[in-house]
Amino acid sequence: MGNPKRAEDESLGVCECILLGLSVFLIIITFPFSLCVCMRVVTEYERAVIFRLGRVRGGAKGPGLFFIFPCTDNILKLDLRVMTYDVPPQEILTKDSVTVAVDAVCYYRISDPVLSVNAVENPHKSTQLLAQTTLRNHLGLRTLAEILSERDEIAHNLQSTLDEATDPWGVKVERVELKDVRLPVQLQRAMAAEAEASREAKAKVIAAEGEQRASKALKEAADVMSTSGTALQLRYLQTLNNVAAEKNSTIIFPLPIDMLSGMMNK
């Protein structure tokens, strides 16, 4: 007795030949009207996957013109352009127990048309659902500070994880970007108060450092002027000049400056 599987394959081949012959016969007797059914055109950004009696006929066809058998061939067109998926806001509990809403955008494309048709029922829907779950799982392992400060690194890790998961589906994830991180209102107020207190403390430290440097410079200037009476008199006259310019008044010296200096020396 022969192998039943082999006999089944041979019978399937005979049936296929009969159907193909019938298709060719119908095309010939209806020529040239049959050309409208047999000719297909795909654009530069499209590829066509042809199923002949349920089996894939070669690889993806296109771009350009090709022929099919109308009775035995079934054609599926796939778009190879980059698709944009706006991930809706996901409620995420971070590692430090803070609830945030994060939304993102995912860019992906079909890299293998034949594999995307045979491996998964709906590659677009599957990729979108996977992007949502991966975003929640990945950000759940991060603290709020890490999410706010390491957005580029998180986006790169998300892209690598999604690309690795969708590769068996014939889908290539090009890029993932985090759009917005929404915090609770109470947490926003607390962070704003903390930031304001930090700025005030920093301003006080800067003012204290400035006063310290100014006092040191003033002490050095006083030490230099104390060694020279002429410099002290010039500084005294300069101060009087500034006061007179600001107040617009006349200053009368009751005693000469030389007499005052002599009394100071005594």
TrEMBL record:
PROSITE patterns: BAND_7 (PS01270). Belongs to the band 7/mec-2 family. Residues 37-195 form the Band domain. The keyword Transmembrane applies. Pfam families: Band_7 (PF01145). GO terms for cellular component: plasma membrane. It is found in: Membrane. The keyword Transcription does not apply. The lineage of its organism: Eukaryota, Metazoa, Spiralia, Lophotrochozoa, Bryozoa. This is STOM. Keywords: Membrane, Transmembrane, Transmembrane helix. The chain crosses the membrane at residues 12-33.
